[in-house]
């Protein structure tokens, strides 16, 4: 155990460093998951806009198929992004859910010497 200052800089409390590390690691994972979803959405929007632009060009009707392909890939991208986001959120929820009948024990409860 180590003294750690939290919230109030004038008051110190004894907090287990392993619990802090685990909590911060889970928060980083949640933020990375959200950031990944946003990048899938951004890529999907780029493909959507590009597909619409290709469909609007009347002089090049022979590449109209490329616009439709871009719109199809856009739907696939957004579907994959949402699926991965929901899947990882469910995994994190199961990991954080307390066990029935008591508190969850930390696996490495023995301190390293």
* Pattern of helices and strands: EEHH
Low-pLDDT residue intervals, each spanning 5 or more residues: none
Q: Roughly how many Å is the radius of gyration?
A: 24 Å
- The count of strands amounts to 2
Shape: elongated
Helix content: 55-70%
Distance between the termini: 13 Å
Class inferred from helices and paired strands: mainly alpha
Spatially, the strands of the biggest sheet line up as 1-2
Q: Give the mean pLDDT.
A: 83
Residue share in β-strands: 5-15%
Query: Sheet bearing the most strands, described?
Result: 2 strands, antiparallel
Overview features:
2 strands, mainly alpha, elongated, 113 residues, single chain
SSE order and pairing:
Elements: E1 2-5, E2 12-15, H1 17-56, H2 64-96
Antiparallel strand pairs: 1-2
Helix pairs in contact: 1-2
